[in-house]
Amino acid sequence: MNAKLITAPVVALDVMSGDGGPAVAIAAADIAAERYPRLSFLLFGKEAVIAAELAKHPRLAARSKVFHTDDVVLMTDKPSQALRRSRTSSMGMAIGAVKSGEAHAAVSAGNTGALMAMALFALRTMPGIDRPALAALLPTLKNDSVVLDLGANTECDADNLVQFAVMGAAFARTVLGLERPRVALLNIGEEEMKGTEEIKEAAAMLRGADLPMQFEGFVEGDKIGQGDVDVVVTDGFSGNIALKTAEGTSRLVIGLLANAFRSSWLTQLGYLLSRGALRALRAHLDPNAHNGAVFLGLNGLVVKSHGSANERGIANAIGVAHDLIVDSVGTRISHDMASFKAHRPADAPAA
Amino acid sequence: MNAKLITAPVVALDVMSGDGGPAVAIAAADIAAERYPRLSFLLFGKEAVIAAELAKHPRLAARSKVFHTDDVVLMTDKPSQALRRSRTSSMGMAIGAVKSGEAHAAVSAGNTGALMAMALFALRTMPGIDRPALAALLPTLKNDSVVLDLGANTECDADNLVQFAVMGAAFARTVLGLERPRVALLNIGEEEMKGTEEIKEAAAMLRGADLPMQFEGFVEGDKIGQGDVDVVVTDGFSGNIALKTAEGTSRLVIGLLANAFRSSWLTQLGYLLSRGALRALRAHLDPNAHNGAVFLGLNGLVVKSHGSANERGIANAIGVAHDLIVDSVGTRISHDMASFKAHRPADAPAA
Fold first, then answer.
1. What is the pLDDT of residues B275-325, one digit of tens each?
2. Least CB-CB distance to A246: which of B245, B261, B267?
3. Which fold has domain A130-291?
4. Considering CB atoms only, which of A221, A238, A284 is closest to B248?
5. How does pLDDT run across B81-115, given as a tens digit for each residue?
6. Three-state secondary structure string covering B263-332
7. What is the pTM of this model?
8. What ipTM goes with this model?
9. Distance from CA of B28 to the nearest CA of A (A)
10. CATH architecture of B130-292
């Protein structure tokens, strides 16, 4: 593998993004600066606001350059509207810094559709990759699992799914530290005959491939939470439905639990005694702990934070960017795609 | 509406189906017989085994006719294998009794694919319905919601989705007792521009339609658990992924909760004090409480119970069959489809 070792990673941060605004984004960058002593920042947004926040964080200030702009992409902007402001908005300028090579990754907590459109337009897909995919970590009973695509592509063909599998495995090797991640395609049954033609064809291609992963065939939605596979591959529609349904169900069960504890003085006492353990449960499921979805497959790294993330959440998203830079995930993906192409069966049967 | 009032409903029960076997199925039928004094049963399976179980349940025995067969569809049988045994298997014979008019609904806890194939082959779709859909109830923070299709159709066009919406609304009116259910299409965003062409087209058709429902546009996966809509409409692939992911996440959170309570003697004491409330929480989420998925859109009712359902679970599935019979859900669907066709906009824009 022909990786350039990056020892002084630089992150371009869209300071104006996220529900918490610049105060939260800057505080998050400061947490990340403490965690990663070699990491430095390019900060994009309103200079006066950034300066006021940086004054509170001298450690971060010493490792940051500020780039002023008044233009901010709103959560309500359509991707087409945002694209026109690629050079003027804090989001667009952060991506531009990755394109020009000044930064190794861009991080934003802003409008997902706009971020995706700008990132794709500016950075283009890597050789061998037809479409980028949005990947993130989901909590399970065991270790976290990678799920992709989470919404970048509404419809996917077999080649797209195979590329997602390669990218997801590379991501898992970096972020989960696994040598040979277990990879499966999300499906409505585990038998070979189940699912769409695209999925069956992708499975046939992955079964025959010589890749640094353990291909496990199909997995159903109820198995994601068990953590029996490390990478769950699906199209962006189903992936988004699965991710959101999992988040919603988590909230539902925790909401019902809160009601249950409120039901009598006895259960309230029970709650007081169990509080510490319940806090640990909530922490395990907290989206902030798993924050940082990555657009994989572009010529440059772009990390999306939850809009509602807190300081720790955005710091985790910056941490994901840091790890992917240092581990040269892009080089891993190119390498695996090249090796896969070389070994691709001439006529993979649509099993 | 031209409904024949059915005052003496008859359910055809596939006694040999389900993980619990005939003992659980017969005990379940007895619970249902107690709940619904006018309900009677046709029982299909091994006569000797059924007779032995019926001896324990004289109330049920007095209201049952037994039809002997040795042939049982296995969970591992492919739909094509099962289809060949439509006349000889307990599952096929139960469906046959609906076709011949001897029973008003068939209930089975067996192989879903086989049940669907046999039901479609024997009963055919209703006029105006191109494909049947599998519908079931999901627990939410408020009332239960209907979700369909849960896996009968891997891919769907706009017409299918519109028909599912009509059928799901009719189902909600019967099972949830709502006059004007709120109906939404499952999507990856709530904005009109989001999603596949099929979904956008279905939304345009439903927006203009004069139907006994409140069409709410799009809903995302994380909103299912909130219970803000009564009917969630989607294709069988996404619906199955959403249902299974919700089940898996429920189990994940409850598993983590059990671990949390086990972590110290203090939390164990907390658990003891909160036990009653936690039992209520588990009951709210218990699949047995929501058991009974229905194949809608056929010329006859077929209800699928969870294979792992207990006596109470299968009794609930029989209860769903009972309510749908008494409420003439089939007539409701025909009526609504006919009225929808009459009002269908000549050229619905693909918004």
1. 888 888 888 888 888 888 999 999 999 999 999 999 999 999 999 999 999
2. B245
3. Isopropylmalate Dehydrogenase (3.40.718)
4. A221
5. 999 999 999 999 999 999 999 999 999 999 998 99
6. CCHHHHHHHHHHHHHHHHHHHHHCHHHHCCEEEECECCEEEECCCCCCHHHHHHHHHHHHHHHHCCHHHH
7. 0.88
8. 0.87
9. 26
10. 3-Layer(aba) Sandwich (3.40)
